[in-house]
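Dear V.,

Thank you for sending over the compound details. I've combined the ligand you provided, pyridoxal-5'-phosphate, with the protein sequence from our construct and run the structure prediction for the complex. I'm sharing the raw inputs here so there's no ambiguity about protonation or stereochemistry in the SMILES, which I know was a concern on your side last time.
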Amino acid sequence: MKENMKSSGAETDLRVQYRKMGISDAVQDLADEVLNGLRDRFARIDETAEFNQLKVLAAMQQNRVSEACLYPSTGYGYNDIGRDTLEKVYASIFHTEDALVRPLLASGTHALHVALSGNLRPGDELLAPAGGPYDTLEEVIGIRPSRGSLAEYGVKYAQVDLLPDGGFDYEAIRKKVNPSTRMALIQRSKGYQTRLSFSVEQIGDLIAFLHELKPDLICMVDNCYGEFVQRIEPGDVGADLIVGSLIKNPGGGLAPIGGYIAGRKELVENAAYRLTAPGLGKEVGATLGVNAAFYQGLFLSPVVTASALKGAVFAAALYEKLGFSAFPPASAERYDIIQALTLGSEEAVCAFCRGIQAAAPVDSFVVPEPWPMPGYDSDVIMAAGAFVQGSSIELSADAPIRPPYTVFFQGGQTWPHARFGILKTLQYMKDAGLIHA
Ligand SMILES: *Cc1c(COP(=O)(O)O)cnc(C)c1O
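Below is the predicted structure of the protein with pyridoxal-5'-phosphate bound, written out as structure tokens.
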């Protein structure tokens, strides 16, 4: 057998395989050294994936997912058993009364907009008790004036920033809550801000405080990038609504589109009336054949999320070893899959992004360049060679071209791919003379 492989030229050595893919021995040595120090960490990530795999599996079994659930519906989509069952599965996983999981939710921003606008009425106030929301929500809410914003419909907005140490400013929150405060919006992941992400336990403390101040306040969590990172979800700590995108963690990289809104039955229904039409709600909405990918992506999601987490921790540890600063630091507990690395120069962030692109399964031959992106005050460079456009559970990176030259890195559907992508970034940095490994 061995002889046969030799004569056919097959090579089974991992080192040689990496070399063929352009990774030098020096880069491999450095990576191996860093990885040796991460074994315990990775074992804990794997255990959480195992826990969450069982959680997802139990939800699918309890809700009797059947072959018929995988079939498409068309037209109005009445009696789409696959859609209705999947919504029960999500509700089981998040421990909520109900859920809306739809391809009609075009993105995370759209899902958040539907959840907000479905539940707020003119005169109501939306409170952000833990700092400003994700960039795209500024226009949804009307913080930046925008056509069709909640502000145009008479919804007010109030915000309490975090304390300098990153904690919740409970005193200021107490003062801000008033009779018209109807909803509170809490973002689990830091997104592209420089604060730390919140743990589900921290979010639970904040929700408990808010509910004590005002029992009927709707506490909504923007759960983007956080699903399956921990063993509990915001539904386990009192969240009334939980919202996320299916082209991030819970779609497992297989969902080609979609978002979810899970929470109390009445609130989810209100969102459904906004998504489709008053009177129709959840009853309509054909799934056009995406159900199978939604189920299978959800099934894979705990392990996919773990792969992305390992990539984030590995990248942080590797770049810290080279003297760069990582946020969160390699040693920090993770509450989402985003890793920021401050690389200090335009050349470095470009080399990093080009390495990620060169490691992609799709468009690997493309060389990313910085360009002036709408909505940003500087040029931005982006690397993504994804099967699903904009999917950030797939390996991707982007950086605004401005000091301190920080690149945001996330995803990796498989750990080997995340690892290879990170090795590629290091190789590109080394070849450009930006590091001496
Ligand atoms: C990605 C993200 C969103 C918006 O999702 P899109 O699908 O890009 O519209 C909102 N909030 C957070 C925290 C996110 O990470």
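A first observation: The longest helix spans residues 291-321.

Warm regards,
I. M.
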